[in-house]
Amino acid sequence: MVTPNRRLAQALQSEFSGFQAARGLRAWETAAILPFDAFVQQLWEDALYSDLAAQVPLLLSGAQEQALWEEAIHGARRALPEYSAAPAAAQCRQAWELAHRWRLPPDRSGMPDEDARAFHDWSSRYARVTRDKCQTDSARLPDVVMPHLGHAALRKPALLVLFGMDIVTPQMRDFIDALEAQGCEIVRSLSPARQADVKRVELADAKEEIEAAAHWARSRLESTFSQERRRIGVVVPDLETSRARVQRIFANVMRPDHLVAGEAAALPFNISLGRALAQHPMIADALLVIDLTEHEAAFEAASRVIRSPFVAGAEAEMVPRARLDAWLRRNCPPNVSLDSLSRLAEAPGAPRAPLLLEWMRRLAKFRKASLFGNHLASEWARAFSEALRIAGFPGERSLDSAEHQTLDKWHELLAELATLERVAARMGFQAARERLRTMARDTVFQPESRDVPIQVMGILESAGQEFDHLWVMGLTDEAWPLPARPDPFIPVRAQRAAGIPQADPVTSLELDRRITEGWLGCAGEVVVSHPRMKKESELAPSPLIAAIALSSVEELAVERHATLRDRIRAAAVMVEVQDAQAPAVMEATQPGGTGLFKDQAACPFRAFAVRRLQSEPLEKPRAGLDPRDRGTLVHEMMRAVWTELGTHEKLVETSEAALDRILDDCADRAITVIRRKRSEALTGRYAALERKRLVSLAREWLEEDRRRAPFDVVALEEKHPVTFGGITVNAKLDRMDQLAAGRAIIDYKTG
Predict the structure, then answer these.
(1) C-alpha dihedral (699, 701, 703, 705), degrees to nearest 10
(2) Which of 453, 524, 659, 740 gives 20 to 30 Å between its CA and that of 406?
(3) Residue 457: in which H helix or E strand, if any?
């Protein structure tokens, strides 16, 4: 049996297993149910491992196809510099597959626009290269296998059932006809339509719609808990963009305490659409470790690696590494190399994390020995694996099932990277790293989980499936039917002539109408919903469901389940906290200067948190100087100037040339002070501009001081104890002048 997608094949496999178990069997032969593409590949493998091997081209992986398409585009890039190779190659792969599935001839004369002509040139290059190297791809595989179907080595089924194949492309039809000509019996089967109880509901917005669907699914699950197993489906048309929100809301409704559970919470739903492999935390951190071996990496990447649970010593040094990260944020530049990060981590005053420091040193040594020059893709795959091994990846704690599967997929990805040497030349570190990162972004992965009763899926995954209860959301006039989406690299006229769905509004509407009819007949209870508002815009129901009578949510008999927040509020009791339990205010002079009183006046809780609990926000390294550094620079400049001048009389007597020399020298001294703290902050042209600013600002202030009455500077940057309400702090005076009538305090402000 072949199906249009993997999700339907898995559902039928599960149903078959349930049927066999109900018969009392303890073991049985796995049913041969798989997607059409997998069926064709199975026959190709039969031919490859037979005496036909010399006549059968090798099948390219997705990454190999991408590399060859990029090479074809680069070959013509001078003519079309506006194209970015990687995205254009991905679009070319889709157009190439569409052209072969629907038998679209490569007729250059019918290509009026530049995009189609560019694709024709690129595809000609791609076809020539793959032909010369005896290679093929998944788009052409049915045509490769078809001439060999009569060979005895290909294990053809006596009976082939096409289940749920609503759309049969010309290429698929030719392949099926060829199978039938070899004596294979072909049976076409669709899911039988059911008499459904259909209701349409309208919700305020998308968030309320998702919440209603989640409560409905839980109610249906609990109402049938003691009965036979039920299948509950939820279709979300924009699942790709709203996956995170759907996951969060369904988890909060199904198990409100899942975030505070002592172990990973078992949730009764599964979301069909996986995430990019690069978005899984383990793989994201692995890619950041590899990024860290480049000449320089962003501090945020280094910070995440330091705090990652997937490197050596993460559990043993969890607290020291958190403290080290906070310290580095105050002392690290925005971009940092592995060597400089190691030096900073062992600097005086830095929290100690010896295990982290040890593997960073070994990784820096490995980088110098093995990560330079051009290498084959297989050599880069081994080098990346070794770099991660040195870093202790995937960490010291035990991995759960999902993490084990993710790790296995990562190893498969590295193995696929190694195979690129068949189609790509030697490459440098940056090209290899970017290729690996692109592959991780393009690989959609979802760990297998136990069979659960609630399935949340997109439009394509729902095709051909049967449920006991089904909710389809988001059916507004803007979202459904989908707008026509012709491929930009193939002439629209050719797509329309071939009858490609969604090539024009007519075929798109017809396809979506059939999908809608399939939803309305695939379950005993069907709920279709749509939001009333999207931000400030008012929405209307899709014309494909507008004829269904509108019902209220209350008519669905949905129990509103309490969330964790509701439970906490219901159990709330008033607790009185005595302030004496907090750290006491010491009698000694308080650190932080007069800012203590500023915090207390602005927000007593802030003063309590910052001054007594010693809570500080995490800083973020930035390029150049921050406002605090610039203020310190001005203070150091003015201290040096008045240390040199001392009095109003000397200022007036100093010539312009001498004053210029004094200001230049004082600016250099001030910059030197800052460089001792942040060596990278003032360099090159930026240091020259800051020096010029200091000299200009100081001269402007000195002109004001010249016009004042005579004075002597008696104090510079001195601390004086000041007591208010029994609390003593050190007030730092920027400058104090002795005048004839008394003393004046000068407080520098640069804002």
Answers:
(1) -140
(2) 453
(3) strand 454-457
Percent of the chain topping pLDDT 70: 94
Those residues whose C-beta lies under 8 Å from the C-beta of residue 86, and which sit 6 or more positions away, are: 66, 70, 438
- Which residues are within 8 A (CB) of 25 and not within 5 positions of it... i.e. 6 or more apart? none
97, two tokens? 């597959």
Residue 176 reports pLDDT greater than 80: yes
The whole-model pTM stands at 0.81
User: Three-class SS of residue 480?
Assistant: coil
Instruction: Write down how long the chain is.
Output: 751
Distances (CA, A) of 21 to 9, 33, 165, 199: 18, 17, 28, 35
Report the C-alpha gap between 542 and 479 in whole angstroms.
8
CB neighbour burial string for 213-249, b if at least 16 within 10 angstroms, e if fewer:
bbbbbbbbbeeeeeeeebbbbbbbbebeebbeebeeb
CB 595 within 8 A of CB 727: no
Query: Quick one: which of 527, 544, 514 has its CA closest to 4?
Result: 514
Residue with tokens 């090798």: 58
What does DSSP say about strands 444-445 and 275-276: parallel, antiparallel, or unpaired? antiparallel
Name the β-bridge partners of 590.
729
Nearest to 317 by CA among 403, 261, 407, 397: 397
Q: Radius of gyration of the chain from Cα atoms?
A: 35
Report whether the peptide linkage leading into residue 481 is cis, meaning its omega lies within 30 degrees of zero.
yes
499 φ/ψ sector (left φ>0, alpha ψ -120 to 50, else beta): left
DSSP code, position 624: S
Q: Which of 589, 750, 724 is nearest to 734 (CA)?
A: 750
Assign 632 a pLDDT band (cuts: 50, 70, 90): confident
